[in-house]
């Protein structure tokens, strides 16, 4: 018996449709949600990500602004752009595309973003609020994972969830969101002893460690739901291909549901960015937040 494939593209399309409908309602009230994206440098992957974010924003009716700065731009110049966007009431969301050039302190820049406009959810005020269970802007990839889990399982209360990886972008906020959903949560990392045994007790496994094909069938309890955040490029037989942190072919017969790579978590990240921009716009205009 093979696991259900969790279709991230279809789920993202549903989220985007929901956002587009709500954006249309806001526009009818004279409110036009706007997202500003700041890109510093010439990283090819970053240019692709920004292009895709702008495309999705346009599709759902969110006004997008792009600020493209050269690789040699000073930190002060980047902070000046951020300050201007903070002060602009017509801008609801600010995203500074990472990574930044090595000479710029990422933390300093991210901390300069108004937390109410921090649609990536990386400002310490939003990170702290998430750990306290307050309604804040939440990192997009973990938020997307939660949507996939709820679409697949419904109520998550009482489930044992294991998060493999403890990054600030995925692992830690993922654990906080699962706790908020009343899961029992374990976080595994490079110093964990017998991680495969601990992971094998989980009803839900979220893999976000950046090690290709790390998690095999012996890590997974029969019937577990597996969310694979990893995206790694490997060479096989002279050809390059993308794989996750989970050995998909090995785990497919064991799990009850699993995300593929690509086509699983990836599409959800940009969809949840649009959701966060909508949420920020609603909050800044004193409107009740809607899912």
UniProtKB/TrEMBL annotation:
This is Bifunctional protein FolD. NADP(+) binds at residues 165-167, 231. Residues 139-284 form the Tetrahydrofolate dehydrogenase/cyclohydrolase NAD(P)-binding domain. InterPro entries: Aminoacid_DH-like_N_sf (IPR046346), NAD(P)-bd_dom_sf (IPR036291), THF_DH/CycHdrlase (IPR000672), THF_DH/CycHdrlase_cat_dom (IPR020630), THF_DH/CycHdrlase_CS (IPR020867), THF_DH/CycHdrlase_NAD-bd_dom (IPR020631). Keywords: Amino-acid biosynthesis, Histidine biosynthesis, Hydrolase, Methionine biosynthesis, Multifunctional enzyme, NADP, One-carbon metabolism, Oxidoreductase, Purine biosynthesis. CDD domains: NAD_bind_m-THF_DH_Cyclohyd. Homodimer. One of its GO terms (cellular component) is cytosol. It catalyses: (6R)-5,10-methenyltetrahydrofolate + H2O = (6R)-10-formyltetrahydrofolate + H(+); (6R)-5,10-methylene-5,6,7,8-tetrahydrofolate + NADP(+) = (6R)-5,10-methenyltetrahydrofolate + NADPH. The keyword ATP-binding does not apply. PANTHER family: C-1-TETRAHYDROFOLATE SYNTHASE, CYTOPLASMIC, C-1-TETRAHYDROFOLATE SYNTHASE, CYTOPLASMIC-RELATED. It comes from the Bacteria. It holds the Pfam family THF_DHG_CYH. Pathway: One-carbon metabolism; tetrahydrofolate interconversion. Belongs to the tetrahydrofolate dehydrogenase/cyclohydrolase family. GO terms for molecular function: methenyltetrahydrofolate cyclohydrolase activity; methylenetetrahydrofolate dehydrogenase (NADP+) activity. Catalyzes the oxidation of 5,10-methylenetetrahydrofolate to 5,10-methenyltetrahydrofolate and then the hydrolysis of 5,10-methenyltetrahydrofolate to 10-formyltetrahydrofolate. Its EC number is 1.5.1.5, 3.5.4.9. GO terms for biological process: L-histidine biosynthetic process; methionine biosynthetic process; purine nucleotide biosynthetic process; tetrahydrofolate interconversion. Residues 6-120 form the Tetrahydrofolate dehydrogenase/cyclohydrolase catalytic domain.
């Amino acid at each position: 018996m093979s696991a259900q494939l969790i279709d991230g593209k279809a789920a993202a399309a549903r989220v985007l449709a929901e956002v587009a409908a709500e954006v249309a309602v806001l526009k009818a009230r004279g409110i036009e949600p706007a997202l500003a994206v700041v890109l510093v440098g010439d990283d090819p992957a970053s240019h692709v990500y920004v292009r895709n974010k702008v495309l999705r924003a346009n599709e759902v009716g969110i006004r997008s602004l792009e600020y493209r700065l050269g690789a040699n731009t000073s930190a002060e110049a980047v902070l000046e752009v951020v300050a201007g966007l903070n002060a602009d009431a017509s801008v609801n969301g600010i995203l500074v595309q990472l990574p930044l050039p090595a000479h710029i302190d990422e933390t300093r820049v991210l901390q300069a973003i108004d937390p109410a406009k921090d649609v990536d959810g990386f400002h310490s005020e939003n990170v702290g609020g998430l750990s306290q269970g307050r309604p804040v802007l939440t990192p997009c990839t973990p938020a997307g994972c939660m949507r996939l889990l709820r679409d697949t399982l419904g109520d998550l209360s009482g489930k044992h969830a294991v998060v493999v990886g403890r990054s600030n972008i995925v692992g830690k906020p993922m654990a906080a969101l699962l706790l908020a959903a009343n899961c029992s949560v374990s976080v595994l990392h490079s110093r964990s002893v017998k991680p495969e045994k601990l992971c094998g007790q989980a009803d839900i496994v979220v893999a976000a460690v950046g090690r290709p094909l790390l998690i095999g069938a012996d890590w997974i309890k029969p019937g577990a739901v597996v969310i694979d955040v990893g995206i790694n490029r490997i060479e096989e037989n002279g050809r390059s291909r993308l794989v996750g942190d989970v050995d998909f072919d090995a785990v497919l017969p064991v799990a009850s549901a699993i995300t593929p790579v690509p086509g699983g978590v990836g599409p959800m990240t940009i969809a949840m960015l649009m959701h966060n921009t909508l949420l920020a716009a609603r909050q800044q205009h004193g409107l009740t937040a809607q899912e």
